[in-house]
Design brief:
Length: about 375
Amino acid sequence: MAEDGNVVRMVPRQSWSRQFRQLASDPLFRSIVLPILAIFVVLKLVTPLCFTYVGPNEYGIKVAQVGLLGKRGVHEEVYQTGYHFVLRPFGIERMYTFPKDVQVLDLTGTREESSQEAKVTKPAYIQTSDGFFVVVDVSILYHVKDPYTVFTRLGPGRLFESNGIVPKAEPVLKQTLGELTTEEFYNSPLRAAKAEMARALLQKDLEPYGLEVKQVLVRYFKYTDEIQKNIEEKKLKDQLVFKNQAEGRAAYEGAQLSKMVQEGQATVGVKIQEGRAYATKKDADRDLYVRTKHAEADLLVKLADARKTQLRNDALQGTGSDRMVGLKLADVYKGLELIVLPSDGPNGVNPLDLDHTMKLLEVKKGEGK
């Protein structure tokens, strides 16, 4: 039926078949389009039946039930990520996958306290070396190292959990953690050492099955309420004893420190006094040295002055000293323009009478010649 404006007209069914016959008779359609469509349909039908996809985080192990294209049974080749040819129709071949990433076994008993991907079992029930029981939550990290060995020895799928690690986990934990006493469970380094020992034993047991144990983690442990109470009371008493011992050591060390401080202060005071006495002595020695040198210098100056005076007196008292006095007097007369002296009497002075003047000055004739 076709609608043209307000007119509705019927298209005969024969026109569709006629158009299809015309298209099928077209050489281009038959030579190109029709083979492509046929190949596409075949691939869509064959791909799910003959190809299997191995995910990015998986190993693949192929098992051939019928040896049409090769070896029958489990193939040793480990298939990695991608599409692989597997004749799935009639169960001729099948691809089994195993995880590559780290797997977790939680011995806790409660799904809420474990990861979503983990295998959860009941917690380990450990008897300590001193006869008490403790419930331990443990996480074991491991992974599939050799999928061919895992498949051939433990089976396909997740049987490596139920047939491999689960049956061996708790006995190994009882063997290693059971060597601890009740109190030693609180010793973190010792508990971690026993967990490492458990990892080594599990690795030794599971390595022939193609599994590798990465780590054993003790997450939590719990005693019965009565034992827990006794342990806590004992721990509190031990802590009180340790506290008193620590306070006693602290007091002793404080007294030793105060004594050392006082001795140090006394030593510093003595050294300061010694330094001051040394400085005073050096100052006194310096002043004595300065005064001594000043006195020696003053003595030398005074001796020189006395020597000069003595030499001068000796010169004045020696030969020619009277004549020198006369010469000095002559120099005095030389500077005078007018002089009035008594000229009469025995003490009269006549400047023109040199003989009388020399006699007056007690200058002897003939001296100094």
